[in-house]
Amino acid sequence: MNTKPYIEKHKDRFINELIELLKIPSISADPAYKNDVIKTSEHIKKSLEDAGCDQVEICETPGYPIVYGEKIINPDLPTVLVYGHYDVQPPDPINLWDSPPFEPVIKKTELHPEGAIFARGACDDKGQMYMHVKALEYLTANNELPCNVKFMIEGEEEVGSESLGWFLENNREKLANDVILISDTGMISKEVPSITTGLRGLSYVEVEVTGPNRDLHSGLYGGAVANPINILCDMIAQLHDENNHITIPGFYDKVEELSKEERAEMAKAPFSQEDYNKALDIAQEHGEKGYTTNERNSIRPTLDVNGIWGGYTGEGAKTVIASKAYAKISMRLVPDQDWKEITDLFQKHFESIAPKSVKVKVSPHHGGTAYVTPIDSVGYQAASKAYEDTFGKTPIPQRSGGSIPIVALFEKELNSKSILMGFGLDSDAIHSPNEHFGIWNYLKGIETIPHFYKHFAKMSK
Ligand code: BES
Ligand code: MN
Ligand code: MN
Questions:
Q1: Which of 70, 308, 390, 400 could join 448 via S-S bond, C-beta 3.0 to 4.6 A?
Q2: Which atom of ligand 1 is nearest to the CA of 400?
Q3: Is a pLDDT exceeding 90 seen at residue 272?
């Protein structure tokens, strides 16, 4: 199998097709973009048909539709199910983008001298998902598809994949497969390929602290009444101790502890703390005592404020004690923490540390379970061989700090392992202004994915 000549011949079209897809603002979080999200699902349907799927349908759900496509060449052969998402994060803060988020442009960067496509969703996940559509085109156009393939592309990943959970429960047979293939993560670098073997779980909550029943003059009442913003900051500060351990009782009870050997294995992945700090323009790293940066952002749980607001934040000054203060808090979880249990522990603890002078409300948002996959499975080994074919190197297994909550559910509902072949870089600014995806990475993904099919079909015999 040599995928390179076909890609070389068609790469301009592959890039232009992705650019067209990126122009549609499929922001699932914002109802104002409903029509664009739906339009994107129709766009994907057409792309899958053009790439060689025999049957493609838009499956309606209580939320946004799921695009399902398949090409079954022989029911006796193994089946690969490709999962991805066509929805994107909101582009805010919009003024920090160097070019408009839904008007893709190609620019060179230090890490992407071949150029990168700048647009919301370029890497997460339209670009990475579309690599699979083009890999299918390669396989069908060249008569090299060695097994069956199913596609399931959803539109609610960035808001918790609620409809997909429902879809899985109701379509177990339709979705039956031997392995699930996903490109929605990253790799260490262009020179150091890696396969993601773990994802963190998540518990996301919103808290509201109420002080007096109305906003007050901060001179007339200041000093005599609890200021909910002050109190909220104090309560948040109490959630970590001096070693940056999370103080919620029971929080670590079920955390999987890695053996010395496993941690030593992890430490072999190339990493420079100096480069890391430089890339983020920070003078020093920060985190839980006793763990390295790569451990802190993958095998250890976290608690972070994602947003905090209240009082006067407009131009100039207004002297006021606000009646209410709010924060959105995420907790990244590791195997074997149960996100519902953690949400409960958070709620009880947060209420218990509130002084009598305020009222506290905790509203759970959504959550998900962590995932780890073994490296001795046929799926992992087939992926590893595919990278060897196209990178000339064995990829390093690496746990990621991000979350794709549906992956744990795939295992539960469909009883299959997910293989996470991500081609993005941490520096691609996903969820941030100026998100981009390297053209080299995009084409490398299209080049590598067909090799996975080849090895998987061969090794499954
Ligand atoms: N693709 C990301 C997750 C990701 C990125 C995992 C890079 C590993 C490496 C996904 O779209 C995402 O953003 N997930 C959310 C969770 C979701 C429930 C909103 C996340 O991790 O914050
Ligand atoms: Mn994603
Ligand atoms: Mn995302």
A1: 390
A2: 8
A3: yes
Ligand 1 atom closest to the CA of 124, numbered from 1:
1
Per residue in 340-359, pLDDT tens?
999 999 999 999 999 999 99
What number does the ligand 1 atom closest to the CA of 196 have? 8
pLDDT at 102 over 90: yes
Per-residue pLDDT for 42 more than 90?
yes
CB atoms within 5 A of ion ligand 2 belong to: 124-125, 184
- Ligand 1 pocket test target in 85, 304, 403 with most atoms within 8 Å of CB: 403
32: burial class by Cβ within 10 Å (0-12, 13-18, 19+)? exposed
Ligand closest to Cα of 162 equals 1
Backbone angles phi and psi of 389, in degrees to 5: -60, -40
Q: Which residues form ligand 1's pocket by a CB distance below 6 Å?
A: 124-125, 157-158, 160, 184-186, 199, 202, 368, 400, 402-405
Q: Are 104 and 85 in contact (CB under 8 A)?
A: no
Residue identifier of the C-alpha nearest atom 5 of ligand 1:
185
Calculate how far, in angstroms, residue 341's C-alpha sits from the geometric centre of ligand 2: 25
- The 3-state DSSP class for residue 360 equals strand
The pTM of the full predicted model, rounded to 2 decimals, is 0.94
Nearest to 43 by CA among 15, 7, 18: 18
Contacts 24+ apart (CB under 8 A), 47-52: 47/17, 47/21, 47/130, 47/133, 48/133, 48/136, 48/151, 50/137, 51/133, 51/134, 51/136, 51/137, 51/140, 52/136, 52/137, 52/139, 52/140, 52/141, 52/145
Which residue CA neighbors atom 10 of ligand 1 most closely?
Answer: 404
Residue 452 to residues 3, 52, 298, 388, 449, Cα–Cα distance (Å)? 12, 18, 26, 10, 5
Q: Tell me: the pLDDT tens digits for 375-430?
A: 999 999 999 999 999 999 999 999 999 999 999 999 999 999 999 999 999 999 99
pLDDT digits (tens, 9 = 90+) for 439-451: 999 999 999 999 9
Report in angstroms the alpha-carbon separations of 438 from 107, 185, 446.
9, 14, 13
What is the distance in A from the centroid of ligand 3 to the CA of 310?
Answer: 27
Q: How far apart are CA 454 and CA 451, in angstroms?
A: 5
Given the CA of residue 368, which atom of ligand 1 is nearest to it? 18
pLDDT reading at 461 higher than 90: no
